[in-house]
Recover the amino acids of this structure.
């Protein structure tokens, strides 16, 4: 290493120039000196902000995907959990106001027509954006067969696909459906039904399933769900942990399933397969399962949500309830209390499919419950993150 050159002392002329600059600065009016100091401070801040933007652009910002929730008011954390009914007449001013204020995270649609739906979804998303909220989940029941809210795909019912046993057909029908729905502004399909049909089951369910063989149902459910995702719409497998043994329709009465765990275990296979395939939502049923939790309907059961679904099947996506206005719930407790029980049990979103008033009432009750400590901020933040991760994934 060559020796360092000795430091040169400023010449007499340079000393005089430095002294002159200092004198000129001292001679400036105080206001001018303050302005110069402020300008320098602004420059420093701008440089620092620029570096922050560069760094956050490289490493990612938590806020972008809902990762940072510390500044989100609890009212808006709760709002993301609520799925309200959209009247077939479209959103009125009251509903749009609730959306704008962040009291609703999703809507369930049953439209008059595809054209009307496109208009409605645009209004709803505009209201969410105007209020500075995440995009809305726009959900529909488009299973095919007897449960189909729009005349578009799927062309074949689950039973027809099940008879064929053709995974490619299931995938194709799912993709066609997903593409069709995404084009109308729908981003979630409450399908496919992952229940396994058993003799004596309610007729309203048996016509909606892919069949009675758990392994066959599993492959077709997973293929249809994957097709939906490929088409741009998130799939929802339902009704966990399975309604194949239910003799009553949970929309009209209480359903208690008495089968043993060994008898119920095979019916979990379609859910497990879909979860391994990356499905984003699992809908919990409102039936009661003595083998898992004799006291609580599945959608309100910590054991079924946390132990069976999260721990045993490894599901880390959004857990959404079946309709909490169904008779299986309301004959046991009011729907707003059911919503509290569902979220406290580990659920992420609660559905109100019959009236717009029920979701509004539930939202108010949930906010009150949070202020009393009946819902923890920690659990609400965890649900909020899962919901926003889902919405980011399907580009809501």
């Amino acid at each position: 290493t060559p020796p360092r050159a000795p430091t040169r002392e400023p010449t007499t002329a340079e000393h005089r120039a430095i002294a002159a600059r200092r004198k000129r600065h001292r001679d400036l009016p105080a206001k001018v000196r303050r302005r110069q100091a402020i300008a320098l401070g602004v420059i420093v801040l701008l440089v620092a902000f620029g570096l922050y933007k560069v760094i956050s652009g490289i490493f990612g910002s938590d806020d972008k995907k809902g990762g940072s929730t510390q500044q989100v008011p609890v009212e808006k954390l709760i709002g993301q959990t609520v799925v309200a009914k959209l009247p077939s007449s479209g959103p009125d001013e009251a509903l749009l106001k609730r959306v704008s204020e962040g009291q609703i995270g999703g809507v369930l649609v049953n439209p008059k027509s595809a054209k009307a739906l496109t208009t409605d979804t645009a209004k709803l998303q505009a209201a969410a954006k105007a209020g500075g909220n995440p995009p809305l989940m726009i959900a529909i029941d488009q299973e095919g067969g007897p449960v189909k809210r729009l005349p578009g795909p799927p062309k074949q019912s689950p039973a027809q696909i099940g008879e064929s046993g053709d995974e490619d057909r299931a995938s194709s029908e799912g993709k066609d459906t997903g593409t069709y729905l995404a084009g109308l502004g729908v981003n979630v399909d409450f399908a496919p039904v992952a229940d396994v049909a058993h003799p004596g089951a309610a007729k309203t369910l048996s016509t909606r399933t892919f069949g009675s063989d758990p392994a066959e149902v599993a492959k077709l459910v997973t293929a249809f769900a994957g097709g939906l995702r490929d088409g741009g719409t998130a799939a929802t497998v339902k009704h966990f942990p399975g309604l194949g043994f239910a003799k009553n329709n949970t929309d009209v009465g209480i359903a208690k399933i008495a089968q043993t765990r060994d008898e119920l275990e095979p019916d979990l296979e379609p859910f497990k397969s879909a979860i391994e395939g990356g499905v984003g939502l699992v809908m919990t049923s409102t039936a009661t399962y003595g083998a898992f939790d004799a006291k609580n309907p599945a959608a309100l059961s910590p054991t079924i949500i946390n132990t069976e679904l999260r721990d045993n099947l490894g599901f880390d996506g959004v857990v959404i309830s079946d309709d909490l206005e169904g008779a299986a719930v309301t004959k046991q407790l009011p729907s707003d209390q059911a919503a509290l029980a569902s979220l406290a049990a580990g659920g992420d979103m609660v559905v109100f499919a019959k009236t717009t008033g029920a979701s509004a009432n539930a939202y108010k009750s949930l906010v009150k419950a949070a202020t009393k400590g009946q819902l923890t901020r920690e659990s609400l933040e965890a649900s909020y993150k899962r919901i926003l991760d889902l919405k980011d994934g399907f580009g809501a």
Notes: Residues 12-59 form one domain. The longest strand covers residues 234-240.
